[in-house]
Design a protein that fits this description.
Elements (H helix, E strand, L loop, with lengths): L10 E8 L2 E8 L7 H14 L14 E2 L2 E2 L1 E2 L4 E2 L17 E10 L2 E2 L2 E2 L5 H19 L8 H8 L3 E9 L2 E4 L4 E4 L2 E9 L3 H14 L12 E4 L1
Antiparallel strand pairs: 1-2, 3-4, 5-6, 7-13, 7-14, 8-9, 10-13, 11-12
Helix pairs in contact: 2-3, 2-4
Length: 224
Amino acid sequence: MTKYKKIPGPFTFFIEEKNKLNYINMVLFGSGKEFLPYIYNVFFKMGQKGIGKFRIKFKIVDILENNKSIFNSKNNELNLNTSSTYFTNNKKSYSNITINFITPLRIISNNKFLNTFTAKKFISTLLRRIYLLSIFYCNFDPEFNFTDILKLAESINIKQKTYFQKENRFSYSQKKKINIGGLLGKIIFEGENLSKIYNIFNLGELIHIGKSTSIGNGKYTIIK
């Protein structure tokens, strides 16, 4: 483990509001699913004590997995005997891929935030995250041929239609506001060999990319 500066957390989450309800979309990777009861307990107690400056209280209405309820609201019990979501390969042909960032993208290189980057840098960042999550939480070595994939990435053109969104959050551990802002908007990848690595982009939709993914950053969708 000493060769890795930081091991990614086994989850991502994204908060959105629908019909006056707040939805927390959380993805747990591999063995990370074992933490679900503890995560539920944390949110349950947070709801009782309240959150934020004004200690706003809330209650858990439902918990869904694959759009099916796994929560009994009457006795506050979880049904953990459920199946997981598995990634499936996509074998379609693609000459361009457009992704749209919903939450800020922060790619850091040599301790500097990158406003622009190559397709190779983007793909290598995503590959590294997939690899680490697979090794540490899924007991699985994806056995990427990094050399071939990154060589292929060099032939891919990239167009950015992005803008920087400033965003801060208060860190209780550091006792100060920290910058978690990043790029929003669209990124277009073009190249004849995109079909060979489309599944890497597809998986990226699920796991996010860049810094601060555990608090929701780096979430994108593929525009089809």
